[in-house]
């Protein structure tokens, strides 16, 4: 059974970011589930939308036995409340078997103003767990969007997958692939199978549900990682 946890608006201007908290939650779930990764998704940047920095949300993707959504949500909920940041408006969403309507909603939040009411009604319709955990609870909008965008499989980038964060400096392409990257490609889409890659801060794109690292040449002929939204 596949699950996705979405979180948003968990930080303030002085605290760790939402991606950091998402990785901590993922590490807890990785003890009992198969973790597929943590993804970052860019939402609408607009003066009318409150945001700490870039208005991004995070999805945590994993699979395992058929657990109830409430059971999973209570674990994530406690972790989020234990790390609550003053002034934040956190939202939590948990879904298994994400329907097309929630995927479409995720795309909508990237280009349009969406209300909490719309998010809550959609979650209720599809039996998704959605809860605001503080402040004005505005994070429910992005939390549901994170689930939809992660499930779509062709949006955002991984902030955690495999062991890519264990790599530093230059490594051959086979070491990068063995660390959890599915493919390495140039920005033009050409497959890269040899050479060395600078591995600091690799953030592979999520494409067709897999981590794909896009790279460009540096001045010495090695490959530099690119970050794509």
Tell me what the structure shows:
With 229 residues, this protein is an alpha+beta fold. The chain contains six helices and twelve strands. The protein has two domains: 2-158, Alpha-Beta Plaits; 162-225, no CATH class.
Uncertain residue segments: none
CATH architecture of the largest domain: 2-Layer Sandwich
Instruction: Measure the end-to-end span.
Output: 27 Å
Radius of gyration: 17 Å
The pLDDT mean sits at: 93
Strands in their spatial order, largest beta sheet: 5-4-1-3-2-6
- Approximate helicity band: 25-40%
CATH class of the largest domain: Alpha Beta
Total number of domains: 2
Query: What does the overall shape look like?
Result: globular
| Topology order in helix (H) and strand (E) letters | EHEEHEHHEHEEHEEEEE
Task: Please report the total strand number as a whole number.
Answer: 12
| Tally of DSSP helical segments | 6
SSE order and pairing:
Elements: E1 2-8, H1 18-29, E2 34-42, E3 56-63, H2 69-82, E4 91-96, H3 100-109, H4 116-125, E5 129-132, H5 139-152, E6 157-160, E7 170-172, H6 173-178, E8 183-186, E9 196-198, E10 205-207, E11 210-217, E12 223-225
Parallel strand pairs: 8-11
Antiparallel strand pairs: 1-3, 1-4, 2-3, 2-6, 4-5, 7-9, 10-11, 11-12
Helix pairs in contact: 3-5, 4-5
In short:
By secondary structure, the protein is of the alpha+beta class. 29% of the residues lie in helices and 27% in strands.
């Amino acid at each position: 059974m596949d699950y996705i946890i979405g979180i948003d608006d968990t930080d303030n201007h002085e605290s760790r970011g939402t991606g950091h908290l998402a990785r901590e939650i993922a590490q807890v779930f990785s003890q009992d589930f198969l973790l597929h990764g943590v993804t970052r998704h860019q939402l609408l940047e607009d003066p009318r939308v409150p945001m700490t920095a870039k208005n991004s949300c995070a999805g945590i993707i994993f699979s395992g036995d058929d657990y109830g959504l409430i059971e999973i949500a209570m674990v994530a909920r406690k972790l989020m409340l234990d790390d609550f940041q003053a002034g934040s408006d956190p939202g939590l969403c948990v879904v298994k078997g994400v329907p097309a309507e929630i995927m479409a909603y995720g795309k909508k939040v990237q280009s349009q103003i969406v209300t909490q009411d719309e998010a809550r009604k959609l979650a209720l319709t599809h039996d998704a767990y959605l809860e605001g955990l503080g402040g004005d609870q505005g994070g429910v909008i992005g939390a549901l969007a994170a689930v939809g965008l992660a499930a779509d499989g062709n949006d955002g980038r991984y902030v955690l997958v495999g062991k890519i964060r264990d790599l530093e400096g230059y490594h051959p392409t086979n070491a990068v692939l063995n660390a959890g990257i599915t493919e390495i490609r140039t920005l033009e889409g050409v497959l890269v199978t040899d050479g060395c890659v600078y591995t600091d801060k690799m953030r592979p794109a999520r494409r067709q549900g897999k981590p794909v690292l896009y790279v460009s040449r540096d001045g010495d002929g090695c490959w530099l990682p690119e970050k794509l939204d």
